[in-house]
UniProtKB/TrEMBL annotation:
Domain of life: Bacteria
SUPFAM superfamilies to which the protein is assigned, alphabetical: Helical backbone' metal receptor (SSF53807)
Pfam families from the UniProt entry: Peripla_BP_2
Ranges for domain Fe/B12 periplasmic-binding: 32-289
InterPro entries the record matches: ABC_Transporter_SBP (IPR050902), ABC_transptr_periplasmic_BD (IPR002491)
Protein name in UniProt: Fe/B12 periplasmic-binding domain-containing protein
Length: 292
């Protein structure tokens, strides 16, 4: 079941994005970087350093203009052929790529591959990553501005959190439903940190960042609010269809009409917009909460 769900989710995601037909419009470029990390990709664009990026992995979806680039596949299901077709002079990756035999092929071909520092998933760690990437691309001044904005937004968000009367229980469902199994983000995910900073609590505990849960367990978690990531929400298309999902209609979130759409890329990694995203989450999950 686990492998079947993985294939179903990834296959649906790949076929939905329609990005494989994008042409290589930078064929004459000498420096050709393939970026296989959605976090790196967003930071590169924020640094205004995207000129040398010729392709990205299919999960790199922010900002919107990144979708104009060719893709080389899903970062955990890569093929050497797709990457080599882009004639890369450098591959940027965050140690979260696979399968292993493809990674070995790339190393054996002596294609330069680079990871930036393995920073903790904290705001300070994100600042350090932005600054390191800013130095690498010669965009130190922009990097410093991004860090200052991130820190200011986080300071405001944490100040707001201290004023809220409630601490709603949040269920974050990634990709909606597949084969009557939900893929749910847990208290060990980056999404959990975002929810905590926004003044909420994750509804599901787990050893992994995401878990497969049955409709019965989803119903038992009885969240105050359900956040559905974009692909699952958009695939369903309406609250009526969401109501038809097993286990959803019995929750307090459904009874109170508190089921909202969030972007997947905003929930799974930290970047320049993390403070901004926490502020948006606060507006979403504390709509009915009057400040003290």
């Amino acid at each position: 079941m686990k492998n079947y769900l993985y294939i179903l989710v990834i296959g649906s995601f790949l076929t939905s994005c329609g990005r494989f037909k994008n042409e290589d419009n930078k064929q004459e470029q000498k420096q050709r970087i393939v970026c296989i990390s959605k976090q790196y990709s967003e930071i590169i664009y924020a640094l205004q350093a995207q000129k040398e990026i010729v392709a990205v992995d299919v999960s790199s979806t922010y900002p919107s203009e990144i979708k104009e680039l060719p893709t080389i596949g899903y970062h955990r299901a890569l093929s050497a052929e797709a990457i080599l077709a882009m004639k890369p002079t450098m591959i940027l990756e965050d140690n979260n790529i696979g399968p292993e035999h493809v990674v070995k092929q790339l190393h054996d071909l002596n294609i330069p591959m680079k990871q930036f520092g393995a920073y903790q998933n904290t705001i300070a760690g994100t600042d350090s990553l932005i600054r390191e990437m800013g130095t690498y691309f010669g965009k130190q001044a922009i990097a410093e501005t991004l860090c200052n904005t991130l820190d200011a937004d986080m300071d405001l968000a944490l100040k707001n959190t201290n004023t809220f009367k409630t601490n709603p229980k949040i269920l974050v469902i990634h990709f909606g439903q597949a084969s009557n199994i939900y893929l749910v983000m847990t208290n060990h995910s980056n999404a959990s940190k975002l929810i905590e900073w926004a003044g909420g609590t994750m509804a599901v505990d787990g050893e992994r960042s995401m878990m497969q849960l049955s409709p019965e367990i989803v119903a038992q978690s009885d969240p105050d609010i359900i956040l559905l990531t974009d692909f699952g929400y958009d695939r369903l298309g309406s609250i009526e269809q969401i109501a038809g999902l097993p286990g959803i209609s019995t929750t307090r979130a459904f009874a109170d009409s508190k089921i909202y759409r969030v972007e997947e890329h905003d929930m799974v990694y930290f970047g320049p917009r993390t403070g901004e995203n926490v502020l948006k989450l606060q507006q979403l999950i504390h709509q009915d909460d009057e400040a003290k």
